[in-house]
Amino acid sequence: MVCCEKNIVNGIEVSKFKTVSISVVIRMPLEREFVTYNALIPYVLKRGSDKYNTIRKVNLKTDELLGAVFDTCIVKKGEEQILQFFIEVIDKREFVEKAVEFLSEIITKPLVENKGFKKEFVDGEKENLKYEILGRKNNKREYARLKCVEIMCENEPFGIYGDGYVEDLEKIDEKNLYKHYRYILDNYALEFYYVGSISKDSFNEYVEKYFGNISKDSIKFKENIVFSKKDINVVKESESLSQGKLCMGIRTKVKPNSDEFYVLLAANEIFGGGANSKLFLKLREEKGLCYYINSFVYRFKTIIAVQSGIKKDDFHDAVNLIKESIEDIQKGNFEKEDFDSAICGLIKKYKGIFDYPSGIMDFYLAQNMIGDDRSLKDVIEKFKTISMKEISEVMKKIYIDTIYFLC
């Protein structure tokens, strides 16, 4: 990668793809006051700019770029909210330049009417966002995960919903939304990522040509690891369900940019990250207590979440077996075969990132956010150095914080 002096440009030069993928991101703190404003903005911008002032004209432009793929979204990574603009074009210099120019039109020259965004665009996207937010509860498995995080991190930015809140929508209009977007452009850096065969110098030339000298510093990643052991917070919510949804939030003491983080990933694979994990084998295969079970690590908060579908009457048995599985790994009660399977699984997973431009860009965005200089190859080599003892030691640094059960 390269970080150019005048623009934050991160180039991953590879020739294996027939396309060039480009992503422009704007990183902002996750703040309750502005979260819904930020969630609306990428979708309003996607509907048209000053030059391409209808969805039809936007689509005609992407067709002109021989079927370029264009999209926008809002994502929550740790305690940051990130606007993302993405385009993929065929691997030819003239198309790459036109793609950068198009993104510049969308991002820096939005359609403005009467000192605000186009009212029709804003009203339409407010309605779309409203139904998306209300729809959170339709996927009970996902709803349980979100509620567990909200309860566990109620006094931390991480507990804020990244796609906003319905109660905020009424106060948002085309003028104050545009004013907020101008504030974003004035105060936060644009970061550029691309994957393709184009040279870094050429890509940076296009960025400077169409975006100008954007020299703001990116916001500094705030490491907010809360680790204060207390009684487990158990919250149960009742609904008419055929299958209960269990989610457990587990605190760790691991820094996301440390060597130990990669040990935690390996420990989680043994714990609940794969089909050979302790949770899957013990709760599903041996005891038949759950319909599904898995665990995963939130990279930027280093929180482990366990998700499972169980019967209401099996709640206590399931929780006790999950606790027992943690203790087993802490005591080193796992086989060399389990360890080898976990390491091989992680290496395969990270090698798979090389197959997708979006995965490569997302990996380097994450590394840049937390100040981790390791490349994909470095991370893969790191996994090969982990020991079984390190797995046990890192699991001794965790504790269950919150148990949420929708039953």
CATH domain class of the largest domain = Alpha Beta
Quick one: biggest sheet? Answer: 5 strands, mixed
* Rg calc: 23 Å
The fourth-level CATH homologous superfamily of the largest domain is Metalloenzyme, LuxS/M16 peptidase-like
What string, H for helix and E for strand, traces the elements in order? EEHHEEHEEHHHHEHEEHHEEHHHHHE
Q: Work out the helix count.
A: 15
Mean pLDDT: 94
Find the count of extended strands (DSSP E, 2+ residues): 12
CATH architectural grouping of the largest domain: 2-Layer Sandwich
CATH topological fold name of the largest domain: Cytochrome Bc1 Complex, Chain A, domain 1
Helicity, as a percent range: 40-55%
Category from helices, strands and their pairing? alpha+beta
User: Roughly how many Å apart are the termini?
Assistant: 48 Å
Q: Within the largest sheet, what's the order of strands?
A: 1-7-2-4-3
Low-confidence stretches: 1-7
Shape: globular
**Number of self-contained structural domains:** 2
Q: How much beta, percentage-wise?
A: 15-25%
Question: Short description, anyone?
Answer:
With 407 residues, this protein is an alpha+beta fold. It folds into two domains: 8-211, Cytochrome Bc1 Complex, Chain A, domain 1, CATH 3.30.830.10; 233-406, Cytochrome Bc1 Complex, Chain A, domain 1.
